[in-house]
Amino acid sequence: MTHDFDAPSFVDAYDELPLWSAMFGSVMLERVPLHANTIALDVGCGTGFPLLELAQRLGPGSFVHGLDPWVTAVARADRKRRQSRVSNAALHIGDAAALPFRNHAFDLVVSNLGLNNFADAHAAVVECRRVLRRGGVLALTTNLVGHMREFYEVFESVLPADRRSALRAHIEHRATLESVRKLLDSAGFFVRAEIEDTFTMRYANGAALLSHDFIGFGFLPAWREVAGEADVFGELATRLPSPLTLTIPRAYVEAT
Q1: What pLDDT, on a 0 to 100 scale, did the predictor assign at position 107?
Q2: pLDDT tens across 30-43, in order?
């Protein structure tokens, strides 16, 4: 199954897909500094989370800008903003590596899972530093190496030997806390707080996992690329345990 990312019907449904992003964003909302009269930016705001929630939690007197290159998602976020009457938020279409804002414009910059999606993560965090005021805070979440290890152990067992290096590369491209620290340090940030923990995603069996719409959108294309010409997904669905519990490591990092 393929997805038309620009179809309004897909974007409207997208809000219902990622409990995934909510599980990361909830950690951010528990920890991110909340001060009156904050001017904030959500980089990679997608369809509006945590942008709209953050704007409401900061309240009147604060203002939150959201930016994303995904035009249809930004339009969806703006519809939600109007529907919910969130008057202290605005949406922008743009690239994290070339933020369309002046220097030192923000007290707070947040990004929920943005590091996973930025084409140039270093350029993006350099831009975040540019637009932050002196003493401003960057708060981000990311998933980490080791996510869904229960799945990947079985996936490796069904792959032909010549595809296992592709699987290792796919697994190892994820962030570690050390790599996030190095990235932020290279952009001139000082990490002042970090939290690492895990949550789980549960499925009745492998077939349920592989037919789940969010998995089909967010993960299955990359898994098919790893497998190449090998037709392994029927066997994979059979071999995965029932019930299936997947461990997801996550991190919240706060820097100045």
Answers
A1: 98
A2: 999 999 999 999 99
CA distance 100 to 123: 14
Among 206, 201, 203, residue whose Cα is nearest residue 234: 206
Instruction: Determine contact, residues 162/143, Cβ cutoff 8 Å.
Output: no
| CB neighbour class for 31 (10 Å; exposed up to 12, middle 13-18, buried from 19) | middle
pLDDT, tens digit (0-9, with 9 covering 90-100), for 222-247: 999 999 999 999 999 999 999 999 99
- Give dist(CA 242, CA 191) in Å, integer: 41
Full set of structural domains in the chain with CATH: 8-255 (3.40.50.150)
Average pLDDT, the chain: 93
Give the C-alpha separation, 127 to 35, whole Å. 23
- Strand runs labelled E in 85-190: 89-93, 106-112, 132-143
Please tell me whether residue 139 adopts helix, strand or coil conformation. Answer: strand
Overall average pLDDT of the 98-119 stretch: 95
Q: Which amino acid is at 217?
A: F
How far is Cα of residue 134 from the mean position of the Cα atoms in its chain?
26
Q: Tell me, what amino acid is at 186? A: S
Residue with tokens 């595809």, as numbered in its chain? 163
- The structure's pTM equals 0.90
What are residue 134's phi and psi, to 5 degrees?
A: -60, 125
